[in-house]
Structures are given as C-alpha cells and as structure tokens.
Amino acid sequence: KCPSYPLDCPNNCGARGIKRTEVDQHRRECPLEPVECPFKEAGCQAKLVRNELDSHMTANQQQHVLTLMAAFREVKAELRASKTMQEVIAADVAIIQQSPEKQSSDLALTSIKSQLEINNSLRLQCDGPPLTIRMINFSH
C-alpha cells in the first residue's frame, strides 16, 4: 500500500486527499471523531464526536458534578472500609500477642463480630453489594 495514497476522512467530515500516513493524525483533530467525555470514569455515559464535546461539557456541568460526587462517595466508603479492616486486623494481632493459648477462639469471634458490624454499617452507607465475610484461620 502506498503511504502517500490520498484517502477521504474515515469519519466523513469532508476532508479529502489525506495521505494514508496522516490519517491517524487527522483523526486526532477530526471534528467527527468519536471521543469520550472526560467524566466517563465518574460515570458519564455520553457518546460524542469531537465537535460536540464543548457543548456537552457546558450543558452537563451540573450532572458531571453530581456523578463526580457519587464516585467520590464510593471511594470514600471504600477507604472507610479499608481503614476499618486495618483496625480489625490490628485488634486481631493484639489478641494473638496477648494470649496465644486462646487466640483461635477469641480471634475468630472478634473477627466475625467486627466483619458483621462493618458489613452492616457499609450496607447502610452505600448502595453497593454487601461485603463478604472473610474468615481467618490462625490455628496451626
């Protein structure tokens, strides 16, 4: 295939005679190239072409802030759960260090109670699926 062969824009924007080797560059600038909304990771599902992006961003400012806040709340809940799990693990380690002979029964009860409390509190705080209970077996 000849690298200089002239092609029309694959998005039908009207550009003609684009060298085969320059099609990718044209697509990075083409007004009809499909693009993602910068708020896609926060939950925006818009299907756009480049020349619609500015008006989309202007018209959807409030919705973008709301989806960003929802994503922020999810991350915050996950961080809270992670910190709580670290506290549970620290408490489990303290039990092991205090009395090794009764570690397995106390540890199992503490772990189960703590994880149930975490699961119940998170279920009230977010709409996500409940956490699964993780059993730790420290007995040898």
Detailed description of the structure:
This protein has 140 residues and is mainly α. 54% of the residues lie in helices and 7% in strands. It contains 4 helices and 4 strands. The chain has helices at 23-29, 53-59, 61-98, 103-125, and strands spanning 6-7, 18-19, 34-36, 47-49. The strands form 2 sheets. The chain has a two-stranded antiparallel sheet. The radius of gyration is 27 Å and the shape is elongated. The relative contact order is 0.08. Mean pLDDT is 80; it is low at 127-140.
Task: Draw up the topology in text.
Blueprint: E1 6-7, E2 18-19, H1 23-29, E3 34-36, E4 47-49, H2 53-59, H3 61-98, H4 103-125
Task: List descriptors.
140 residues, mainly alpha, two-stranded antiparallel sheet, disordered C terminus
Termini separation? 68 Å
Q: What structural class do you assign from the helix and strand content?
A: mainly alpha
Largest sheet: 2 strands, antiparallel
Proportion of helical residues: 40-55%
Helical stretch tally: 4
Beta-strand content estimate: 5-15%
Query: H/E order of the elements?
Result: EEHEEHHH
Kindly state the number of beta strands.
Answer: 4
Q: Write down the overall mean pLDDT.
A: 80
Rg estimate, integer Å: 27 Å
In order across it, which strands form the biggest sheet?
1-2
Shape: elongated
Taking pLDDT < 50 over at least 5 consecutive residues as the criterion, the unreliable ranges are: 127-140
Offer a concise description of the structure.
54% of the residues lie in helices and 7% in strands.
